[in-house]
UniProtKB/TrEMBL annotation:
Residue intervals of the ANTAR domain: 45-106
The keyword Ubl conjugation belongs to this UniProt entry's keyword annotation: no
Keyword presence, Hydrolase: yes
Alphabetical keyword list: Hydrolase
SUPFAM superfamilies linked to this entry: GAF domain-like, PP2C-like, PYP-like sensor domain (PAS domain)
Organism: Streptomyces paromomycinus (Streptomyces rimosus subsp. paromomycinus)
Protein name per the record: Transcription antitermination regulator
InterPro entries the UniProt entry points to: ANTAR (IPR005561), Bact_Sigma-Reg (IPR052016), PAS (IPR000014), PAS-assoc_C (IPR000700), PAS-like_dom_sf (IPR035965), PAS_fold_3 (IPR013655), PPM-type-like_dom_sf (IPR036457), PPM-type_phosphatase-like_dom (IPR001932)
PROSITE patterns with a match to the protein in the record: ANTAR, PAC
Region listing for Disordered, in residue ranges: 1-34
Domain PAC: 510-562
UniProt GO molecular function: phosphatase activity; RNA binding
Length: 810
């Protein structure tokens, strides 16, 4: 079992009998006789204190032994002398003290919580823990005996600390009594200085302390270190870093107070058996607190006809709202199980319409079983009864079961404790008033005003919202339907006339929209809806209806119409731009071209435009035989989409064709093309691969500008050409590009492509290139078949164009 090291406080004034300074005292001051007298006096006081404590412990032990003798007399049907001899002989045979044997006999006879705790400690002992079960049982029974024999709560606190809590490492204990107003009074304490107890003798309601938190939460509160919480409590200055445990002390569903335990050191997690032992001590405190002055008048038992209950009944009868007086109903084991409806006042109104006699005298959960589930009303009443803290809530649902049919009502709830009883008040919401309130709020939110016009008497009734809608004070006379044209815009007179004829002459419901001109000069768009009220002979009696302010809706419709027109115009312009860009792109870059005639080469090209026409890109390719019979091969990709990308592609493609006539190498061509992209276009940036093939030597000189390198297929293997340095086009005013030379062989195939062939959103580029090489090295019947297969197996998903050039050496 986990135990705590007990850190004691030195007794006395902290000066040992032989203490002193030779520099401060002369030889005449050092009187050995006086020092010896003081030491003898201190030793005598300490001896007497020890003897008193031993006498108290012996008295507590004798009480337990005498109780065990009584149990043996009852069980063995023997006399006191024989029971005394039997107890001594059994203790000698078991090699235990008579006190330990007496406690064991009491536990077997009682089978209460203390006995269960002793069994739990015994099981832990067998599992290899230090403290033995009998020792725990002895000190628990000793603490119980001393507490029951004590004449005040202070003696109970001393007994609990000495017998039960000090062995657990606790250094102080406080027992708080809870008042009806949730105040806390220090009923007993041990281990705290006297001045500290005086300062904390009373804690008013609302002050948050450790004990208050346990009372409010109705559960055990544990803090590893009090200093880390910042919550004030008794002994905080003397034990700032020590642990705290506070438990509500209650019986029969009522909390009479709080047991607060203090440790000198931080408190580590406790085993469950330790916490159960502390809970048993809190229950012992609850029985002690029942007789304290603070708890008197709101204890466990509640006499049905006590003066306090009679006063509460008189109070309930004087209320204008339905009220119930509830008294606690305890189960056979003494725990609170329900509340008895002791009295219902004359204003009582059952949500289900049942008479007062049906509810009066019944249990709360029998009369209203849904209170335990739906609104948690029973839990609220139980909490008020336990803590004394009142509870109020608005618009709570009350449900009653009548022939297994749930009938619900909405009410405002108030629950308060008065002595031993609880007063439950509810005010059921009037349905007519509630619907009128809902209608008023709905008219306000919808900017609607209602009216009724009596055509026989000329009386007109408006609600307040309609006066506000017209911009007229409530003291002005309402406007009749015949006068409606005078308050509307002249252009709306025709629509108002049709509305008046339909309602007043044809006697059928109708509606109309018009512009209302208010006295303040503001014009509002209004919709009026009306219906005629006819008598038994079909005569017109009155007209009733409503006006609604639809100004915001009108202007919203106008704005939407303008937005729709602008959007349609923008879409038409965008579609036209995309159509022109697509035509330009397709005119220059057809999707496919047949084999080209070139010296020593077979050339095939493929172009796959983006799937979405709105994403017209700038990918381009070119394969042309130069005047020198060398072959220019290139692919490129303009950044962006749309008409700008398409026109930029045309500029770079045509510029490269013109520059290639000079006979310059691919590095020089890309350098010139960079100047064109940077200076002669509107900030175009692009990537490209450019190669010049010499059919007589079968060599390819090539350079790249930020583009993916070509792929060489030789035999059954495919590989990427090594990267050469080259910045993308248009990034800098001037740039140089490195060239590489590739010696080709017969049947070699060279593939040049744009990134639309390999790019995927969820795949790294090196993985996509590996898949491209695996597809390219597969045998193909012809160059055309090889290119078609590459496009078919391409898994690109970036909605980008794709250009592909295939060159096969013959």
């Amino acid at each position: 079992m986990s135990t705590y090291e007990h850190v004691g406080t030195p007794s006395g004034d902290g000066v040992s009998p032989g203490s002193g300074s030779g520099r401060d005292q002369g030889p005449a001051d050092a009187r050995p006789g006086q020092i010896s007298a003081v030491g003898r006096l201190a030793a005598t006081v300490e001896r007497l204190r020890s003897e008193v404590q031993a006498a108290h412990a012996a008295a507590d032990g004798r009480a337990l032994i005498e109780l065990a003798k009584g149990i043996m007399i009852e069980r063995l049907h023997c006399g006191p002398a024989q029971a005394t001899r039997q107890l001594a002989e059994l203790a000698e045979q078991a090699a235990v003290s008579q006190l330990e044997l007496a406690v064991d006999i009491i536990n077997q006879a009682a089978r209460d919580r203390v006995a269960d705790l002793a069994d739990a400690f015994l099981r832990r002992t067998r599992a290899g823990h230090d403290e033995t079960g009998p020792a725990v049982a002895v000190r628990l029974r000793t603490a119980e005996s001393a507490a029951l024999a004590a004449d005040d709560t202070q003696a109970v606190a001393d007994s609990l600390l000495q017998h039960a809590l000090a062995p657990l490492g606790a250094t102080a204990v406080a027992i708080w009594a809870a008042g009806p107003d949730t105040s806390l009074t220090l009923a007993g304490h041990a281990g705290f200085p006297a001045d500290e107890a005086v300062r904390w003798r009373y804690v008013p309601p609302g002050v948050v302390t450790v004990a208050r938190q346990a009372l409010t939460e109705r559960d055990t509160v544990r803090f590893v270190s009090l200093a880390e919480t910042g919550i004030p409590s008794i002994g905080r200055t003397h034990h700032p870093h020590g642990g705290r445990v506070a438990l509500p002390a209650g019986t029969g569903g009522r909390i009479h107070g709080v047991l607060e335990i203090c440790w000198q050191q931080p408190l580590p997690p406790q085993p469950p058996v330790i916490m159960r032992q502390i809970e048993a001590l809190a229950q012992l405190c609850a029985h002690t607190l029942e007789g304290t002055p603070e708890a008197r008048g709101h204890g466990l038992s509640a006499a049905p006809h006590s003066p306090a209950v009679a006063e509460l009944v008189d109070l309930a009868d004087g209320l204008h709202d339905p009220a119930l007086v509830l008294t606690p109903h305890l189960a056979a084991d003494g725990h609170l199980s329900d509340f008895r409806i002791h009295h219902v006042n004359g204003r009582f109104m059952d949500p289900a319409g049942r008479p007062r006699s049906f509810v009066n005298g019944a249990l709360l959960l029998e009369a209203y079983p849904m209170a335990a589930d739906e609104s948690e009303l029973f839990d609220k009443v139980q909490r008020v009864y336990a803590t004394g803290e009142p509870f109020r809530a608005q618009r709570t649902t009350l449900t009653a079961l009548v022939d297994q049919v749930p009938l619900a009502a909405v009410a405002d709830i108030s629950v308060s404790r008065h002595g031993d009883s609880v007063l439950l008040i509810w005010r059921i919401e009037d349905e007519t008033a509630r619907l009128a309130s809902l209608l008023q709020h709905a008219q306000r939110l919808g900017r609607i005003g209602g009216f009724e016009e009596n055509l026989l008497t000329g009386e007109i009734t408006w609600n307040g919202q309609l006066f506000a809608l017209y911009g007229r004070p409530a003291t002005d006379a309402p406007v009749s339907l015949h006068e409606l044209t005078a308050h509307a815009h002249p252009d709306d007179s025709v629509a108002i006339g049709r509305f008046q004829r339909a309602v007043l002459h044809h006697r059928r419901p109708a509606s109309a929209s018009f512009r209302l001109r208010r006295p303040d000069g503001v014009t509002r768009h209004i919709r009026v809806i009306a219906e005629p009220v006819l008598d038994a002979d079909g005569g017109l009696l009155s007209v009733r209806g409503a006006y609604q302010d639809i100004s915001s809706q009108h202007w919203t419709e106008v704005a939407l119409a303008a937005t729709r027109d602008q959007l349609a115009h923008t879409e038409q312009q965008s579609a036209e731009r995309n159509r022109l860009a697509l035509q330009l792109q397709q005119a220059i870059m057809p999707p496919s071209r047949g084999p080209m005639d070139a010296p020593g080469l077979q050339i095939a090209v493929r172009y796959r435009p983006a799937e979405t026409e709105s994403l017209v890109g700038g990918d381009w390719y070119d394969a042309v035989v130069l005047p020198s019979q060398r072959v220019l091969l290139c692919v490129g990709d303009i950044a962006g989409h749309g008409i700008e990308a398409a026109t930029g592609m045309v500029v770079l493609r045509n510029a490269l064709r013109g520059l290639a006539v000079t006979g310059a190498g691919p590095g020089q061509l890309l350098s010139w093309l960079n100047i064109v992209a940077h200076h002669l276009t509107d900030q175009v940036s692009a990537t490209a691969v450019c190669g010049v093939y010499d059919p007589w030597t079968r060599t390819l000189r090539w350079a790249r500008a930020g583009h993916l390198p070509p792929v060489l297929v030789r035999g059954h293997e495919a590989s990427r050409l090594p990267l050469v340095r080259g910045l993308l086009l248009g990034a800098l005013p001037e740039a140089t590009y490195e060239e590489a030379v590739l010696q080709l062989e017969a049947d070699d195939t060279l593939l040049m492509y744009t990134d639309g062939l390999v790019e995927r959103r969820d795949t790294a580029i090196h993985e996509s290139l590996a898949q491209l090489l695996a597809t390219a090295q597969a045998p193909a019947a012809s160059l055309e078949h090889r290119l078609d297969r590459l496009l078919t197996h391409s898994k690109s998903d970036t909605d980008d164009d794709t250009c592909l050039i295939g060159v096969q050496v013959v």
